[in-house]
Each structure stands twice: as structure tokens, then as C-alpha cells.
């Protein structure tokens, strides 16, 4: 495995806050640019497949998603095609499973056996003003029950400005364990796991200092599986593209006890696994 030395101060911060921001963790030219270039090509192929007349500027790292806004304006479903296809880009798969990232996890968790959960990674596309698929306050462990000893790596593919909607997290919230959740009418307009909400989520979130770091492609936000966080509100004119990957510790007793279950998106019945943490009725 590649050697990775995490600064002592970063380890202390992560243990205390449940989050660290590593600037320039990925090389923009070597790691990020090939993904951006492939996304540009895929958008063009989807446009071509549907015979659409969408003019696009030439590729650049700052405009790799040229034509996407026009594409989803014509048909939102075309954006779904792009969403599914970009997860199959080899450069993306190399990045999420890189020795560099694995070594980071092992350094943080003091283990020599890391795992990447089934369906635990992807490229998010958060469109301006679109609430249906925005991720509200939650803890990753509920949706990724591989082991409580896990981390999320969040990497932007576009510069994250205040209007783009940076990730929001509650500093130190991981120290208070897994919270109670409810599946009710609060988020009835959402789909799948987005219908699940943390019980009294705003009250709980407001108990902690909150942070929303601005990041650039190549930066990584590293979060503990129990850190309370949510997607920011994209109020810009452009989609927010970001990479999420997750590592877990095979040797953690909690994961072993439940059998290192796959992500909720892979069909895992999290309400059965975490029955003690689900409350019936309205939040």
C-alpha cells in the first residue's frame, strides 16, 4: 500500500470535530481532469443519441459540463442517463479506490483492512433549486451499514462557492452516537431513502457549531460516518458536481455483527437493521 502520513494536527482535528478538509489531496491534472473530460464526452454522446441541437463550447476543466443545463431543460430524464453513465468512468473508479485514499482511511482508523461498500460511491449532480434529491441532515452510518468505523470522502468537480451550496456539517456531532430517525410525511415529495429524516433534525443540528467549507477540485472533505451533515442549497445557475466515496473497517465489531451490509441504495433494509433507531409517527 502507498505510504500516507496524516499530519498529527489533522488526526486530532478529525477525532475532535468528526471532519477535516484536506486541500489538494487529489492532483487536479492527474486525478480530476480525466474524469471531467470523460463527463464532457458523455454529455455530448447523450445529446447526439437523442438528436438534440445543443451548441457546446470546447472542453475545459471549468466548463466540462457544457450543454448539461440545456439537456435537462429539454428532458430531465436525459440527465438521469448522464448520472448513471458517469459512475462507469474508469478514471472515477481509479480515484475512489486509490491507494492514496485507502492509506488515508487506514491512517485515520488505525486498521490495515479497509473496504469499499457496495453501491457506496458515485458522482452527485445537484441541479439549481432542485430539492427532491437534496440530502437533508443525516448520518452516513444509517445508510451505509458496513461498519460504524467508516468515513466519507467528498470531492468537488466544480469550484464550490457560497451560491453553489457547500456541504454543511455539525462540528463534533459524531461523538453523540447514532440519532433517532423517522419515515413520515415530512419529506413525502422525495424518493427512496430521501424520505427518511432525523427526528427533530433542525433542533439537533442547531445544538452544534456548523461549518460549510468552500472547496476546489482536488480538495477532499473527510467525514466520520456519525457526523451529522447535509447537502447545501444550490442557488447558482450551474449544477453542483461532486464525488462521494466511502471506506469502512472490516475489523470493526459492529460491521462484523451485522455482516457488513451494503448501502441502502443496494436494497439493504436499514429499518430492520436499525429498528431501535426508527420512531413511528410524525417528526
Automatic annotation (TrEMBL):
Cofactor(s) this protein cannot do without: Fe(2+)
InterPro entries listed in its UniProt record: Phytyl_CoA_dOase-like (IPR008775)
Gene3D superfamilies registered for this protein in UniProt: q2cbj1_9rhob like domain
Name assigned to this protein: Phytanoyl-CoA dioxygenase
Organism classification: Bacteria, Pseudomonadati, Pseudomonadota, Betaproteobacteria, Burkholderiales
Amino acid at each position: 500500500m502507498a505510504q500516507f502520513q496524516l499530519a498529527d494536527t489533522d488526526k486530532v482535528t478529525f477525532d475532535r470535530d468528526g471532519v477535516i478538509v484536506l486541500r489538494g489531496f487529489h492532483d487536479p491534472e492527474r486525478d480530476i481532469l480525466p474524469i471531467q473530460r470523460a463527463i464532457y464526452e458523455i454529455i455530448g454522446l447523450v445529446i447526439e443519441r437523442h438528436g438534440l441541437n445543443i451548441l457546446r463550447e470546447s472542453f475545459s476543466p471549468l466548463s466540462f459540463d457544457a450543454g448539461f443545463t440545456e439537456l435537462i431543460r429539454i428532458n430531465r430524464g436525459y440527465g438521469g442517463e448522464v448520472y448513471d453513465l458517469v459512475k462507469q468512468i474508469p478514471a472515477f473508479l481509479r480515484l475512489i479506490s486509490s491507494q492514496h485514499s485507502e492509506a488515508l482511511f487506514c491512517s485515520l482508523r488505525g486498521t490495515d483492512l479497509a473496504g469499499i461498500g457496495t453501491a457506496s460511491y458515485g458522482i452527485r449532480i445537484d441541479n439549481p433549486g432542485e430539492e427532491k434529491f437534496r440530502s437533508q441532515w443525516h448520518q452516513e452510518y444509517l445508510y451505509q451499514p458496513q461498519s460504524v468505523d467508516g468515513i466519507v470522502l467528498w470531492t468537488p468537480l466544480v469550484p464550490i462557492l457560497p451560491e453553489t451550496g457547500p456541504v454543511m456539517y455539525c462540528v463534533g456531532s459524531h461523538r453523540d452516537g447514532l440519532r433517532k430517525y423517522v419515515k413520515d410525511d415530512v419529506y413525502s415529495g422525495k424518493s427512496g431513502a430521501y424520505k427518511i429524516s432525523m427526528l427533530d433534525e433542525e433542533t439537533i443540528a442547531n445544538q452544534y457549531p456548523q461549518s460549510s467549507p468552500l472547496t476546489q477540485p482536488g480538495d477532499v472533505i473527510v467525514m466520520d460516518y456519525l457526523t451529522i451533515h447535509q447537502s447545501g442549497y444550490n442557488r447558482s445557475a450551474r449544477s453542483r458536481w461532486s464525488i462521494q466515496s466511502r471506506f469502512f473497517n472490516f475489523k470493526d465489531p459492529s460491521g462484523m455483527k451485522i455482516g457488513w451490509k451494503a448501502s441502502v441504495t443496494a436494497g439493504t433494509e436499514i429499518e430492520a437493521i436499525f429498528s431501535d433507531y426508527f420512531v413511528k409517527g410524525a417528526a
